[in-house]
Amino acid sequence: MNDGLWASVWEKGNNSCVKRPFQRREPKVDVFEAVKTRRSIRKYRSEPIPKEKLELILEATRLAPSAANRQPWRFIMVQDQDRKKALAEAANEQTFLSDAAAIAVAVGDPDVSARWHEKDPMIALDHMVLAATALGYGTCWIGAFDEDAVKHLLKIPAKMKIVALLPIGIPAEKPAPRPRKELSEIFFKEEWQTPWPAH
Question: Domain of 142?
Answer without folding.
Answer: 30-173
